C-alpha cells in the first residue's frame, strides 16, 4: 500500500478549504479530525489510495452540504458567519454535554474506587467506539454518528446502574 501522491495531498487540502474545515498550519483542525475519524491516520501524507478516496468522498459530501447555503441572488452575498467550534459531521456541543451528564450520573450511581469522570469517559469511549483518546478533550475526534452511538450505550449503562441501585435498596 503506497502513500498518496503530492497531487492527492493537495486535493485533500483544497477540498478541506472548500468545505471550510481547514485551518492552515493547525494539525488539530477539523480537516485532520475528519481524516483521523475516517482512516485512523493522523497525517494526510500517511493515507493510502483507498483511504484517500474515502476522505475525498466525505469532503465532497461536506462541500455539497455547505453549498445549500449559497444565496440565490448573485449580486448580494450575505456576510459569512464564523465557523463554529463543532465542525460539520462532528459531535455537537449538545451531544457532548449530554454524554458528560450521563457519565456524572453513572459516577453517582456506581462509584468504582473513586475513578474520576474524565477517566471514565475515556474508558467508555475506548470500549464503545474502540478509539483511544486523551483525558484533555476526549470527544474532540468523535463524529456525529459515533457520538450518538456513545450516548445510547451510556444511557444503557446508566439504566443498568439504576437497576442495580434499586435492587440494593429493595434488598433483592
Q: Sheet with the most strands?
A: none
Q: Briefly note the structural class of the backbone.
A: mainly alpha
Number of helical regions = 6
Uncertain runs are 67-86
Radius of gyration: 20 Å
Quick recap of the structure?
The chain is mainly α. 58% of the residues lie in helices and 0% in strands. The relative contact order is 0.11.
Report on this model:
It contains six helices and no strands. It is mainly α and 172 residues long. Helix 2 crosses helix 3, helix 4 packs parallel to helix 6 and helix 5 crosses helix 6. The protein starts with 5 loop residues before the first helix and ends with a helix. The relative contact order is 0.11. About 12% of the residues have low confidence.
Keywords:
172 residues, mainly alpha
What is the secondary structure topology, with strand pairs?
Elements: H1 6-18, H2 30-39, H3 49-67, H4 93-109, H5 117-129, H6 144-170
Amino acid at each position: 500500500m503506497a502513500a498518496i501522491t503530492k497531487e492527492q495531498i493537495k486535493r485533500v487540502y483544497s477540498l478541506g478549504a472548500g468545505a471550510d474545515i481547514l485551518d492552515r498550519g493547525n494539525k488539530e483542525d477539523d480537516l485532520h479530525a475528519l481524516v483521523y475519524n475516517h482512516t485512523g491516520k493522523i497525517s494526510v501524507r500517511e493515507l493510502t489510495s483507498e483511504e484517500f478516496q474515502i476522505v475525498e468522498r466525505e469532503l465532497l459530501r461536506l462541500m455539497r452540504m455547505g453549498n445549500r447555503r449559497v444565496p440565490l441572488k448573485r449580486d448580494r452575498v450575505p456576510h459569512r458567519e464564523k465557523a463554529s467550534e463543532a465542525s460539520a459531521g462532528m459531535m455537537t456541543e449538545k451531544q457532548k454535554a449530554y454524554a458528560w451528564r450521563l457519565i456524572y450520573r453513572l459516577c453517582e450511581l456506581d462509584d468504582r474506587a473513586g475513578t474520576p469522570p474524565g477517566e471514565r469517559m475515556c474508558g467508555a469511549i475506548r470500549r464503545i467506539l474502540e478509539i483511544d483518546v486523551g483525558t484533555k478533550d476526549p470527544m474532540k475526534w468523535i463524529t456525529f454518528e459515533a457520538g450518538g452511538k456513545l450516548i445510547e450505550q451510556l444511557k444503557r449503562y446508566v439504566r443498568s446502574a439504576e437497576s442495580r441501585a434499586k435492587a440494593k435498596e429493595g434488598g433483592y
